[in-house]
């Protein structure tokens, strides 16, 4: 049974375990921001303790050391991802749409402070496992699995090799993310990947699928919500809708009123 702690007078009662989870998540997010900017080795524990969002006692209640904190960041990143693929499969109409939605989730996750911090921990080789190559391999394997489903459903061109395409999707996003993070880059990563999809999908997908895809408002698709460990309680993947009718398109156009 979950115990409760008494709040301030007049305030709501907050379950103690829920409050502890929230505190842990806030600590992870704050540490993730520090690690992402300064690196694991460039962030002294004293900085996290003195300028963190919780007390020193709260920190040590959740994490025995800075190393344990780093391991918790990586664990939070991998555990939250396990919830994303089933949500993508539930929203997508077919495996190729699922591939796009899955990549969308990766893009949005890169803005999550826990994911950014965990990524820096992996690049700094702080934890023995998983490695950055292993994490990239997991995503590549999931992308290949969707492409194999697409091939079996007749959605791919016969010359499109699922393993090769999966590797290109992972490399394409990784390269564009690097460009996006470089000084002076003004184009959002989301737009960079839309350009990538506009070029890649006609090369790998069956002509009939491409024709239907082009008639859908895929470049105006909604971003996923709650795909990162900081806000995974709000996980929501949006399917790409059909082409809106003329009246709906007119109502949705900016600056137009009836």
Q: Would you mind describing this structure in some detail?
A:
α5 (84-91) crosses α6 (95-109) and α6 packs antiparallel against α8. The protein is 62% helix and 2% strand. It contains 12 helices and 2 strands, in the order ββαααααααααααα. It has helices at 16-38, 45-51, 56-62, 66-81, 84-91, 95-109, 113-123, 132-152, 162-181, 189-204, 207-214, 246-252, and strands spanning 4-5, 14-15. It has 2 domains: 15-73, Arc Repressor Mutant, subunit A (Orthogonal Bundle); 75-244, Tetracycline Repressor, domain 2 (Orthogonal Bundle), CATH 1.10.357. It is elongated. The protein has 258 residues and is mostly helical. Mean pLDDT is 86; it is low at 1-11 and 243-258. The relative contact order is 0.11. It has a two-stranded antiparallel ribbon with strand order 1-2. The termini are far apart. Residues 21-81 form the HTH tetR-type domain. GO terms for molecular function: DNA binding.
**Amino- and carboxy-terminal Cα gap:** 55 Å
Shape: elongated
Helices and strands, in order, run as: EEHHHHHHHHHHHH
Give the proportion of residues in helices.
Answer: 55-70%
CATH architecture label of the largest domain: Orthogonal Bundle
Number of domains: 2
The secondary structure category is: mainly alpha
Report the uncertain regions. Answer: 1-11, 243-258
In total, the number of strands is 2
**Number of helical elements:** 12
Largest sheet: 2 strands, antiparallel
Short characterization:
Residues 21-81 form the HTH tetR-type domain. With 258 residues, this protein is an all-alpha fold. The chain has helices spanning 16-38, 45-51, 56-62, 66-81, 84-91, 95-109, 113-123, 132-152, 162-181, 189-204, 207-214, 246-252; strands spanning 4-5, 14-15.
């Amino acid at each position: 049974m979950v115990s409760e702690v008494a709040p301030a007078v007049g305030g709501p009662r907050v379950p103690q375990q829920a409050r502890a989870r929230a505190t842990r998540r806030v600590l992870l997010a704050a540490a993730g921001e520090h690690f992402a900017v300064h690196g694991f080795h460039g962030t002294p524990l004293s900085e996290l303790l003195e300028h963190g969002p919780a007390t020193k006692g709260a920190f040590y209640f959740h994490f025995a050391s800075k190393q344990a904190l780093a391991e918790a960041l990586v664990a939070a990143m991998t555990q939250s991802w396990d919830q994303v693929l089933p949500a993508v499969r539930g929203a997508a109409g077919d495996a190729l749409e699922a591939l796009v939605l899955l990549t969308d989730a990766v893009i949005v996750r890169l803005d999550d402070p826990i994911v950014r911090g965990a990524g820096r921990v992996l690049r700094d080789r702080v934890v023995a496992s998983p490695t950055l190559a292993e994490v990239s391999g997991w995503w590549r394997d999931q992308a290949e699995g969707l492409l194999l489903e697409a091939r079996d459903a007749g959605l791919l061109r016969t010359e499109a090799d699922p393993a090769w395409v999966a590797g290109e999707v992972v490399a394409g996003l990784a390269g564009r993310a690097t460009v996006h993070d470089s000084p002076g880059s003004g184009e959002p990563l989301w737009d960079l990947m839309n350009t990538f999809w506009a070029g890649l999908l006609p090369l790998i997908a069956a002509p009939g699928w491409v024709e239907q895809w082009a008639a859908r408002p895929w470049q105006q698709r909604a971003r996923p919500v709650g795909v990162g460990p900081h806000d995974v309680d709000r996980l929501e993947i949006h399917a790409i809708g059909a082409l809106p009718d003329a009246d709906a398109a007119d109502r949705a156009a900016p600056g137009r009123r009836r």
